[in-house]
Structures are given as C-alpha cells and as structure tokens.
Amino acid sequence: MTGSHRNEDRGGERRWTFNGVEYPTRKLMCAARREEYVRLPDEEGMNFTQAAHAVGVSKRTGKVWRNGRTRATGRNEKASMDWYRSTMDKPKRIHARYLNQEERIPIADRLRPGDSIRAIARLPGRDPGTVSREIERNRNPGTGDCEPCRAQQKAAGRLKRPRPRKAADGTPLWAEIPAGLRRHWSPEQIANRPRRRTGRSPATGRATSSPAPATKARSARSSSARPGSRSCSTCPMGTTPNTSSGPSSTKWPRCPNSRAIR
C-alpha cells in the first residue's frame, strides 16, 4: 500500500512528498501520483476506487485521470490509460497471402515453449520462411516476445500508402477554393475546375487519363461515318439522316451533297 502525499514547510520552502520521495515541484509530484494510479490496477490488482484512495485522491479525480477531460477554458487533459472498446470489431483479413491475427496467436503460443519454426508453421499451414519472417519483423524489440495484437498493428501499418493532400498549399486546388467559395460554387465544382481547365490532377499535378487529340478525331470520324449518315458542310444540321423509305424513317429534306445509303 502506498502512502498519500503531504506538503511540508521547511524554513519557508514548500516540499512536495509522495510515497516517501520528495519532488521539487508540484507538477512532478502529480505526475508520479498519476503513474502510480495507473500501475496499481495493473500490477496490484486494485480496482479504480482503491487505487484512487491509495494515491490520496477522490474517485472522481481518478476517473478524470483515467479518461481525460476538456476544461471550460479549452485545455485538454489526456487520458492516462489506453482503452479499447468492448464492441471493437475484430481485425479484418486483408488477403490470404498475409497472416491474420488468428494465425499469429498460435504462433506466439507455440513460440514460448520453444517449438521449432517448422513445427509452428505446420499449425496454420504456412511456409516456415513466412513464420520466420513474422517472428523477426514483428516481435517486441524490448522483450523479444511475439505479441499477436502488436504484430497485427505493425503489419497493417506497413501496408498503408498515404497519398498527398489534394488541398495542400501550393497545389492548384488550394488557390481555387477561396475563389470558388466567393462564387458560391459547390465543393464538387471547385474540385473539378482545375482538372477541366488544365487537364491535370489537382493533387499530383499529373495529366489525367484522357484520349489524345488524334484519338478524339478518329472517334468523331467513325461516329459520323455510321451507315445511314454522312457529314455535310453545306447542311445546316451538319449530318444528314438516313432517308430510306419506311414507316420509321425520318422525312428530313435531303441534302444534294448527301451520300446516305438507302
């Protein structure tokens, strides 16, 4: 059981003491109390109320230390403990070629008694080289143990490929945002304007995938050369329709220069 703190005045100097240790400032003493409050439930098996009374604070103060809070002044006090929600979903399987958490648990369990790599690899049906790389890359560097949850987080973090911000300072989109807001444009209109104007992505500045001018010209010629219609420069419509006889045929005035197939 730890002792509570007390303030002592010695010759006009205030000394802050906690658990038999003197601290020069109150801030250092409070930090030591919070560390002790976190340690007692983990190592001594106390509940939070007992741990709060052991370090000399109320149950309410212990709850603030445990969960953190935001004061009315806007100052945030971080939580002293890391919490995981009881309703947290299990890690999703990324791909069959990667180890998941369910496969990492038996690997860690069989590694503690000292089983060989080949014997451990037979449990999940993996190659011994895969298990060997898993142990070397994802083990705890401090203790040397293989921790499944920690290994899963490290493996998932290495797969992330962060992209540059589209609205970073210096990008075309950064200058378009205030101008578009002054015109009362929607976010979609603001985001698409640099691409329509320059033909480049607002994030990377690279050219977007669009047909080349020659490809566009060939596409226009092929669409205008469909059977039943020909492009004509003298017609006001530009393209004359098929004037073949029939109940569904269009009765437009035929251009004399048209070569529509009947």
TrEMBL record:
Occurrences of domain Transposase IS30-like HTH (ranges): 97-138
Start-end of Low complexity biased regions: 206-250
Gene Ontology CC terms, in alphabetical order: cytosol
One Gene Ontology MF term: transposase activity
Pfam families to which the protein is assigned, alphabetical: HTH_38
InterPro entries according to UniProt: IS30-like_HTH (IPR025246), Transposase-Integrase (IPR051917)
Region described as Disordered: spans on this chain: 120-262
GO BP terms: transposition
Annotated protein name in UniProt: Transposase IS30-like HTH domain-containing protein
Organism, as annotated: Bifidobacterium bifidum LMG 13195
